[in-house]
Write a structure and sequence with these properties.
alpha/beta, 4-stranded parallel β-sheet, Rossmann fold
Length: about 160
């Protein structure tokens, strides 16, 4: 049997919906919210078409005024979106789920990627550096593996 030749389509098929990236932490106001905003900016800079959400296992405002001010000075508004409790539907619709620290122990998040980030209040500089590294790797991963069947954007 002779294999059919591969033919490039003149008009590649349209992409499906942008993949959902979901960040989850205990309260939903620190790690997941900070990651959401940092990733949003980096994904936009990289031209990635993604949907981004953050959730909390037990929503509660844990962002201290000191950390909030440092974030604002860095151009990050972690309170940009309301804090929302995690649901199973959130997990089901996400392509990638990132769970921070103790949140990764929740049974709903057993398949999530685990990112450990130290307390922002205890060491803002170290937390920011670790988060930046994680975000950079995720942006690179998504940029290297565009959605299957989608046209490659022009350079």
């Amino acid at each position: 049997m002779i294999a059919a030749p591969t033919v490039a389509l003149a008009n590649p098929p349209a992409c499906g919906p942008a993949p959902q990236i979901l960040f989850v932490c205990e309260a939903g106001t620190v790690n997941s919210a900070i990651a959401r905003e940092l990733f949003r900016a980096r994904a936009a800079d990289a031209g990635l078409d993604v949907r981004i959400a953050s959730r909390g296992l037990h929503p509660e405002d844990h962002l201290t005024p000191v950390v909030a001010e440092k974030l604002r000075n860095d151009g990050v508004d972690a309170a940009r979106e309301p804090t929302i409790a995690l649901t199973t539907a959130d997990i089901a619709t996400a392509k990638i789920v990132i769970a921070f620290n103790a949140a990764a122990e929740n049974p709903l998040l057993r398949a999530a990627r685990r990112w450990n980030v130290p307390s922002w209040g205890a060491d803002y500089t170290a937390s920011k550096a670790i988060m930046d590294t994680h975000i950079g790797k995720l942006v690179a991963e998504l940029g290297a593996h565009p959605q299957a069947g989608c046209a490659t954007p022009p350079n």
